Amino acid sequence: MTDDRDPSVSTTDGFPSGSGGHDPEVLRQRALDALLTARARTATLTDSVDDGELTAQHSPLMSPLVWDLAHIGNQEEQWLLRAVGGREALRPEIDGLYDAFEHPRAARPSLPLLAPAEARTYASDVRGRALDILEGAPLHEGGRPLERAGFAFGMIAQHEQQHDETMLITHQLRTGPVALTAPAPPAPTDADALPAEVLVPGGPFTMGTSAEPWALDNERPAHRREVAAFHLDTAPVTCGAYRRFIEDGGYTDPRWWAPEGWDLVREHDLAAPLFWHRDAGQWLRRRFGVTEPVPDDEPVLHVSWYEADAYARWAGRRLPTEAEWEKAARHDPATGRSLRYPWGDTDPTPEQANLGQRHLRPARAGAYPAGRAPSGAGQLIGDVWEWTSSDFLPYPGFVAFPYREYSDVFFGPGHKVLRGGSFAVDQVACRGTFRNWDLPVRRQIFSGFRTARDA
């Protein structure tokens, strides 16, 4: 087993060159920026609708937005105020209300939740105290594990951004008037010249990380993987390509479906991705309250793992494994290094990836040439979460930290791994090693996929 200080791996400290590395004051500023960015986004998602919309349950699959708002504050209180700061609990009586494991989403509207104004005040009060703690926290290498390199602050910023993505999913599911708008993403400049697929050479590479300061436990530790040569789609599968699957009877032919997926199709009468419908011979979709024609050249969105797997079988291909995806996204054959991102070790820019709710939709296939990996594959970060064929399992040497419920309880064949992030993901919660996972039936998430084949 190797780690990220092996010659075959990036020897950066997990932050971009010139960032100051693990200098406590640089880390403090990065943590502050990440926390403020997350809170500004939370405000956008919750201030854009009235109190009735905040307390309503727009789908039994999702919590009321006001639950997410107070849950964000409660997690911050538990980890930054109590665990790091050693402060007395502000609202210990609400811990159970906002425990994601104690109450399923469908039951949360019946709980005595904080009202919108009270939830906002609580989250703001916690944040003020958390920033005071951040100002005095040592953040040095020899400090307590939660404080070291600002991990707890980075973890909470990631947690808030993950719930911001969850709230954005709720916005997509709600049927009220349009609440969110954003400009269109940039158009690709050379999409027509791109090959349909790239060849990723076989051989070893280093997967995961042992050096990224804010990497979560399931990304650790770095370890060597051997991957045989394979071909991978240059871009995620588009709506136009997926439409051809539909029109060829993809949803009516059990040959393409895993047995559980075929059961899902029949039970729910599935015929297209979630939010698509056909009208007067044209495919339309609903996107954040707007009904529009389905764009053929945009990555397909809101498909389950079973749908992605069925399409891949129909196309004579397969979904990539998680290791294949990461090798295509991170491995630089010229140097033998594993990069933080497809383009290198620097944080994402708007020219490299579609992240942070900047555009409210994926960019067209072939966009972001500056973000392409050494393999030649593009849009591996941002745009759509990409289903892989892999079950969510621990890496060799995995250690749960700082609590078992983040990853460990989800390991096993019940959850499939998604990689790469989506337009709804902030950069603090998205990197080349970041692992997402979900049930293979899940469709409301911002999920797409790309396909692979053996070389």
Summary, kept brief:
It is built from nine helices and 14 strands. It has helices at residues 24-47, 51-55, 65-84, 116-136, 151-173, 239-247, 259-268, 305-314, 322-330, and strands spanning 197-200, 203-207, 223-227, 230-233, 276-279, 282-287, 290-293, 331-332, 337-338, 385-392, 412-419, 436-438, 447-448, 452-454.
Overall description:
- The protein has 455 residues and is α+β, with helices and mostly antiparallel strands.
- Helices cover 29% and strands 13% of the residues.
- It has two domains: 24-173, Four Helix Bundle (Hemerythrin (Met), subunit A) (Up-down Bundle), CATH 1.20.120; 191-238 and 314-454, Alpha-Beta Complex (paralog of FGE (formylglycine-generating enzyme)), CATH 3.90.1580.
- It contains nine helices and 14 strands.
- The strands form five sheets. It has a four-stranded mixed beta sheet with strand order 12-11-10-13. A three-stranded antiparallel beta sheet has the order 1-4-14, covered by helices on one side.
- The chain starts with 23 loop residues before the first helix and ends with a strand.
- The relative contact order is 0.15.
- The model is unreliable at 1-13 and 16-20 (pLDDT under 50).
